[in-house]
What we know:
7-stranded mixed beta sheet, 28% helix, Spore Coat Polysaccharide Biosynthesis Protein SpsA, Chain A, two-stranded antiparallel ribbon, alpha/beta, globular
Amino acid sequence: MADNPRIWAVMPAAGTGSRFGGRLAKQYLTLLDKSVIEHSVLALLACTDIKAIAVALHEDDKIFSTLACASDPRVLAVLGGRERSDSVERALAALSDAAESDWVLVHDAARPCVSTNDIQRLITLGCAHTTGAILAAPMVDTVKRGNEVGEISATVDRNTLWRAFTPQLFRFGELRDALMHCRERQLAVTDEASAMEHCGHRPLLVEGSHRNIKITYPDDLAIAAVFLSGDQQ
Length: 233
């Protein structure tokens, strides 16, 4: 890894959490003594290598500015977009001091259980790789492929399958260009790695903790609370 690489962070948080249900976006639900997004932002702030974090918010967001983490000098609130990739593009554009060759971490607001150790290992291994890297975990469950009527059509070999997590780490300029490439060609982008893949890049898979869950359904809050109550380092 190059000496002292410059690292920035982006957090897309403009979603409304429709799958979760309820009026409050899932990132603002209470998890122990803080909101979900506060845990996620604080996990990034704990990494002193990160120069700034651009948090992309919904245009009607009135909550983030009231949180203690929003007043941290390294946190920058920006207007997000309709899709996740739009929010990431806007957040990248807001990091005006970032250079093309700098690195940028993209982390989900709804992943509050990521550990500092996993983030640091991702930075170390990702910055040493040509393309960058993502946190992920090998698939341990048996995986089935279904047909159009909901029947099992095949059992999928899980030996090469991974569950993609965040953060995901890429060169600032290459990620920006990859997202633009996909937007202009209307290519599906489910995470930043998929945008890089569309441009021929092959990110490194860095194994991370299975505790790095994404808050998607109500039961996930209780699971995350258990993880955060213990030592996740």
